[in-house]
């Protein structure tokens, strides 16, 4: 059976199935980094902890760092009271920035706003920033 003997509608169907499969594979490869970025942090394990010197986070300021390969932030709300959270916006995954004068986070992509504790204040984000466990051990803030 040569190529001339295959009916054109079968050939067209085969090519459409192959194109759909290839398109699906390309979409899955392209979406993987975004899905991994938006996935919740895994919990537990001493290796998942990050230590930050207390002196690097003054009262009312935010300190950004990497946690499990993704952006995170710790804020000192009042003297000795720290909160830590993911810095990845829960809308479409942009990294929020700290607005020192307002004491809140702003997402640069669509204007989502979050409180210093990560609660949604406005804009399209559907949920708060993912919180992380925080403990103060001596002069270190231990996150995770
Ligand atoms: S990605 Fe943050 S508001 Fe859209």
Task: Summarize this structure as a short list of keywords or feature phrases.
144 residues, alpha+beta, Rieske Iron-sulfur Protein, four-stranded antiparallel sheet, 1 helix, 22% helix, elongated, binds FE2/S2 (inorganic) cluster
How would you describe what is shown here?
- By secondary structure, the chain is α+β, with helices and mostly antiparallel strands.
- It has one helix spanning 8-38, and strands spanning 50-53, 62-67, 70-78, 81-86, 97-99, 104-106, 113-115, 120-122, 131-132, 134-137, 140-143.
- It has a four-stranded antiparallel β-sheet with strand order 2-3-4-9, with no helix packed on it. Strands 5-6-7-8 form a four-stranded antiparallel β-sheet, with no helix packed on it. Strands 1-11-10 form a three-stranded antiparallel β-sheet, with no helix packed on it.
- A hairpin with a 4-residue loop joins strand 7 (113-115) and strand 8.
- Bound molecules: FE2/S2 (inorganic) cluster.
- Residues 89, 91-92, 94, 107, 109-110, 112, 123-125 line the site of FE2/S2 (inorganic) cluster (FES).
Question: Could you provide a short overview of the structure?
Answer:
The chain is an alpha+beta fold and 144 residues long.
Number of helices: 1
Proportion of residues in β-strands = 25-35%
Strand adjacency order, main sheet: 2-3-4-9
Ligands in the model, by name, code or SMILES, are:
FE2/S2 (inorganic) cluster
- Please trace the helix and strand order, writing H or E for each element: HEEEEEEEEEEE
CATH topology of the largest domain: Rieske Iron-sulfur Protein
Mean pLDDT: 88
In helices, the fraction of residues equals 10-25%
Compute the CA-based radius of gyration. Answer: 23 Å
Our measurement of the CA-to-CA distance between the termini, rounded to an integer number of angstroms, reads 64 Å
């Amino acid at each position: 059976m040569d190529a001339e003997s295959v009916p054109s509608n079968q050939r067209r169907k085969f090519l459409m199935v192959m194109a759909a499969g290839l398109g699906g594979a390309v979409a899955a490869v392209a979406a993987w980094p975004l899905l991994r970025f938006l996935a919740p942090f895994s919990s537990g394990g001493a290796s998942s902890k990050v230590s930050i010197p207390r002196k690097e986070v003054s009262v009312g300021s935010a300190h950004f760092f990497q946690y499990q390969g993704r952006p995170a932030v710790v804020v000192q709300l009042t003297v000795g009271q720290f909160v830590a959270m993911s810095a990845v916006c829960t809308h479409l995954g942009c990294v929020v920035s700290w607005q020192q004068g307002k004491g809140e986070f702003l997402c640069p992509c669509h204007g989502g706003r979050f409180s210093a504790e990560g609660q949604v204040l406005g804009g399209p984000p559907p949920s708060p920033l993912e919180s992380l466990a925080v403990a103060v051990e001596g002069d270190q803030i231990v996150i995770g």
